[in-house]
Amino acid sequence: MEKENLPPVSFAVLDQVLDLARANSLWPVTFGLACCAIEMMSSAMARFDIDRFGAGVFRPSPRQADLMIVSGTVTKKMAPVLVTLYDQMPSPKWVIAMGNCAISGGPFVFEGQYNLIEGVDKLVPVDVYVPGCPPRPEGLLEGFLKLQEKITGKRRFPGPVERW
Amino acid sequence: MVNKIKAELQAAFADLTIAEESYPQCGYHLSVDLKAKDIVNIASFFDERSFYLAVELGVDYKEYLELVYIFSIHSSLCKVKVTLKLDPSQPAAPTLSKIYDCAYWYEREIHEFYGVRFDGHPDLTYLFLHDGIDFYPLRKEKIPVSEKDKQELNSYSPAQRDDSLFINMGPQHPSTHGVLRVVLKMDGEYIEDAYPVLGYLHRMQEKMAENRTYYQFLPNTGRMDYLGAMSFNLGYVTAVERLAGIDVPARAHYVRVIATELNRICSHLLWIGAYLADLGGLSPFLYAFDDRENIQDVLEAVTGSRLTYCYFRFGGLYNDVDDAFIAGTKAVIARMRGRFALYEKLVGGNLIFINRTRGIGVIEKERARKYAVSGPVLRGAGIGVDLRKKEPYAAYPEMDFEVPTGKNGDALDMYHIRIKEMETSLNIIEQAIARLPDGPFIVEKAPKKLKPRKGDLYHVVETPRGELGIYIVSDESDKPYRMKWRVPSFSNLMIFPELAKGNLLSDAVAILGSLDLVIPEIDR
User: What pTM was computed for the model?
Assistant: First the structure.
């Protein structure tokens, strides 16, 4: 939230507590688009287990969710549906663009294409981009930690070791 | 069979020119060029002889539009290509939807992509494309959509047609496995009719194929059917190899079979998990994914990806398999053999599961033929056709395996068939590993630039969901002139409205799930 939008009274401590709570109980909406959705499912299953980070409760209804993982290609026919889903989610809400299609149209962009939204950020604000075609579940988990970092301002789990 | 059909065709239609084609080169035995008025009679002729309409497609040759019909038969190997030339300025043809039910959807597709009007077609509403598109995408020149078609583009609103209760399922619905939308017309709790609406994931694959070289299009195949990516990859490379006349070393053939079968098990496992989740049981989902991860580890080590594989190259493979792959595959086989008992306890013998699926969505043989369904859905209906046996490719001719076939054609049968198919796949992999030959894994002089001969080809392979047909027209350049994908889920989905009629709303989910749909494959 930007400075000027804040109420005149400061709730700094309360905000921090709320952010901590929000970041550790994100509820993603069950919203699979294409190939990436399978990897999203994988990251919720036993081996990768996104629930370790507090996001294991996938909600079938957007009205119960605060995180949308856009996992796949967004077509012009799907765009209004996606925007409706986003609008139905209660604030505060976040969006992860998972995979190259959601980021920029990915491998399906060519001259004369007629059915693609080249990047979901043209429709809804995106908080974290996770590249890959499709990204590995570890990639999604890292994107997820990045989102938590963005919400609380502090990374809770150690980051990846930079080897190169 | 081929000679018999040819003789009968000549006897029935006196002024018909029938050409015999080379099956290894073209993928069909006979080709017939027709006038528009004869197509209905020809279709009835094939219908009487229990042929099915494998695919109907359009090709834009600029001087004329061509409609291609491929008729095939389950009981033996005989394929007939029938072509029809249309005037490109005002294309029109008679509809076959009264004879073959599958033509109903194929013609809608051709109508929106080429602007062909089908006389007598009951409903030419757009199926794939979004509102506001103002040209026919697959025409070679940009031709504006006619006023008459524009009305059909924006006319889809079932609720205005009558005042029944309509329920919208999808495009965001957990049990449609992607972005499929089905509009259900209800009578209380019972379904009166169902109208699938497609195109929420139409990624222009066929248009893209015309803009890409044969090599550049390779990675697209894995994204069309992400669960059976290997099968699609294999189908594409074998089709182009057949068209361009590239030989493949024996080792590559065997590795292709191993990789494809491993992927088939992956696909069926995901189906079991997702289907049971549709029916309300989430535990099998976790078990199935656990098994999947083990298989994906093995495949990832050699292909480099977990899901959308692009492992095969024209003339061989991307890289060779090593001992670790063989050992990993053997470990997977040993593990999977022990898991079937668990699945039987968890799912197959579960009374709730049996009661939810027995007698639901029954497909009769005749209906299966009219809708041209394929794969486990067809075998569930009792027609034991497997293209790995009927038209073998890669190293399948040397494999010894059985084709599991159902009796009742209901959702329970489809479950048992897919379980048995996983066992069959394990047997095939074992045989292939035991006989894996040494030698090169890719042909020595793999062509850097492909320019196949002029002509066309219809090549089919068996994917986890059924018959994948690839129709390629080559004009001797390095890009395909036209590439049509006849995808199994598209035909399998067509039968859904018939199956859903008269059933409870909750059973619609059970029926839809039993068909094992992958949406990007339907929408392409």
Answer: 0.90
